[in-house]
Design brief:
Elements lengths: L6 H15 L16 H4 L4 H7 L6 H4 L3 H8 L6 H4 L1 H16 L3 E5 L3 H15 L4 E5 L27 H9 L6 H8 L4 H4 L7 H20 L1 H15 L29 E5 H4 L5 H7 L6 H9 L3 E3 L2 E2 L16 E6 L3 E8 L2
Amino acid sequence: MRKIITQEEIDTNKKGIRNQLSRFLDFSSDRALLLDNAEWLTKLEYIPFLRDIGRYFSVNRMIKAEAYKARMDSEDGLTFIEFNYMLLQAYDFMQLAQSHDCLLQMGGSDQWGNIVAGVDLIRRTLGKQAFGITFPLITTAAGIKMGKTHKGAVWLDPERFSPYEYYQFWVNADDADIHRFLALFTFLPMDEINPVKQLQGADLNKAKAILAFEATKICHGEDEALGALKASASVFGAVDIQDHILPSSSIPRGGHASGGDDSIPSSVYTAVDLVGTLSLADVFLSVNLCSSKSDARRLIQQGGAYINGARISDFDRVITENDVKDNEILLRAGKKKYHKIILTRI
């Protein structure tokens, strides 16, 4: 079941989705359209819908769909509103075919049954031939689905997932995923991507940096990609990428990516609220390097918490002036997660 939200929340989400997709689609002059199916679904009358649309759907065929079978076999079962989802998605496709001559629907492979239902409904009601394209759900080398329902989701909204964090996600991808992710998430030519299969060690890490740069450039723009690259270089060191590795990439070459760390996630505290007041565990929790006090305790006990490069061993140690360098404190959780504290003396 989807969470019920207000119309105001829906309108906010629509604006957010449009802003995110405008990185990938051109909405100017109606070259791309963002439509709300509430325009036609909220006007439906139940009895006419059952009579005019429901008669085209076989329950026997519907319950054979993998999505329905999985829900029916689950502990929660299949609700009636979920059972109707196929009809509504098919109706959406029919409406778009009728009003916008849209004859192709694309989606993840888990949407195959719903898309085919729409193709069939369009044929039966409008006499038109429609089509569907599905794509395999993207999983990591470990077989984990890349989606918002799973821990460690990758958000397109910079307010939820900064360009630096987005860059770090890609640069920390599993070695086994690099070739496939370059093919899926960049526009680099395949004749340059295919040789990546043969790379190992330091050269493979350079390919990861290019993957991270190119993916971030597409989603957030080249300026943000350069900022994330420089921030990463300021923490982990500049990567010297030779010209022969994925040469079409616009990433700076020859170790010229060093620079400031302005793109590292940061928070501003007043000195009086932090120094001599908050424990390191409190600070790690407040800047979201840990999800709870127990998580912070576990991180420190396992030796994965650092302040200005020094390992933290005392869970309850309070921040002191000795921890402040040029009015900044650099925190680290594990090998890759950094957060910068900026102090004001007001």
